[in-house]
Specification:
The protein is α+β, with helices and mostly antiparallel strands. The protein has helices spanning 5-16, 67-79, 89-100, 109-120, 126-129, 136-147, 168-171, 338-344, 369-375; strands spanning 151-159, 182-190, 202-203, 211-212, 218-219, 223-227, 232-234, 239-247, 251-258, 263-268, 285-286, 291-294, 313-320, 333-334, 351-353, 360-362, 366-367. The structure holds zinc ion. Residues 28, 220, 222, 224, 315 line the site of zinc ion.
């Protein structure tokens, strides 16, 4: 199919460049440099190990959607929920992606406004609007792999402010945060959370692809968020714990697979001695917004539990899986998370410290319908 041709070409170029260096579970790492992403002629006969299997799946994604574009598209989605035409934010972004060739420096609010108007008024369907766009299907699938699990229906606890027989002081500052007055509410909206708990300071900048030197020369395949030691780290999306334990690059790290298997979230350099939230185990289910661990500076050592990173920070990575052959090795696709994290800032998990254990626990539980299915 045409939509994957350009992508396949990029990957062929990378393979040909011989940059296939990522070691097993080197999640901090990159084998991919911007300059390697050059197109090559099709039919040079270059074989890609593992992926040149004739299967039709996406082999490369660059995620340059800006926070502003995500916010605007998301707002259209929210505003039209339950209406005759419900605008899907990922479809809107894929439309823009196809229009801009993925380059969101070209983003203009009016472009999205115009499209949203045509769709909302029923003048065209998304299929009709994008019929002449050669790469729409590619962007729909690529951006969908990043974003499709992040918005939907779910239930969440909220403070029971409407309760007439409770004084304000009885509600939220009860000693056990988990039993303060709360009530369940059905919600449609952003299910995914920001990776740092609410109220904890951090700093960051767009550092995707910058050079790293530990072990071997490579590029940074994630997003670093500098914070204080012990800052609670939050599960961005619900899923299964796939990896837990020491890795010479990531230190104490945890890897979580989304339920649909398309995203692998990687959280690394967690705290020395007590890296993880209590009860976290490989194969277990976590829900978006759960505390999963604590910021530290472990890693860059073959020896376990060693602080060998200069600065306390969370390394947050997001890998896309279109085919199982992309999980490990030369075919991994990691996407830039800086803009995504900015977008998720509106949804931070509130936590409370348990005095006896020193653990931080989320205050408001959620029921992700997908997680509930997985529990059954
Ligand atoms: Zn990092």
């Amino acid at each position: 199919m045409k939509k994957h041709t350009a992508v396949a070409l990029l990957c062929t170029a990378i393979a040909a460049a011989g940059l296939l260096l990522a070691p097993k579970d080197g999640r901090e790492l990159s084998y991919m440099s911007g300059t390697a992403q050059k197109r090559e002629n099709e039919g040079t006969g270059t074989k890609r190990k593992g992926a040149d299997d004739g299967k039709d799946y996406i082999k490369w994604v660059e995620f340059h959607v800006t926070c502003d574009a995500m916010k605007q598209a998301y707002q259209y989605d929210l505003d039209t929920y339950g209406k005759e035409v419900h605008l899907n934010w990922v479809e809107l972004l894929a439309y823009l992606g196809a229009r801009y060739g993925g380059d969101f420096t070209r983003y203009k609010e009016e472009d999205l406004e115009d499209a949203a108007k045509v769709l909302a008024e029923g003048k065209k369907t998304i299929g009709e609007l994008t019929a002449d766009m050669q790469y729409y299907e590619y962007y729909r699938e690529a951006y969908g792999a990043v974003l499709d699990g992040m918005v939907g229906e779910y239930e969440v606890e909220v403070s029971a402010e409407g309760e007439p027989d409770k004084k304000e002081s009885d509600k939220m500052d009860s000693k056990e945060g988990g039993t303060a007055e709360k009530t369940w509410k059905k919600v449609y909206g952003l299910k995914a959370f920001h990776p740092i708990a609410k109220g904890f300071p951090y700093s960051d900048y767009d550092d995707f692809g910058v050079s790293r030197t530990y072990g071997y020369k490579r590029n940074h395949l994630g997003h670093d968020m500098m914070g204080q030691v012990g800052t609670p780290v939050i599960a961005v999306e619900s899923g299964y714990v796939a990896e837990l334990g020491w890795n010479q690059y990531g230190g104490w790290r945890v890897g979580i697979n989304s339920f649909d298997g398309k995203r692998y979230y990687y959280y690394a350099h967690l705290r020395k001695d007590r890296p993880y939230a209590e009860g976290l185990k490989k194969g277990g289910v976590v829900q978006a917004g759960d505390v999963i661990g604590y910021i530290g500076r472990t890693g860059y050592s073959r020896e376990e539990n060693v602080n060998n990173i200069d600065e306390y920070h969370l390394h947050f990575g997001l890998q896309l899986i279109f085919d199982e052959s992309q999980r490990e090795g030369s075919n991994e696709i990691w996407v830039s998370c800086y803009e995504l994290v900015r977008f998720l800032y509106q949804h931070q998990s509130e936590v409370l410290r348990e005095d006896e254990t020193g653990e931080w626990l989320r205050i408001y539980q959620m029921k992700d319908p997908q997680a509930c299915i997985e529990f059954d």
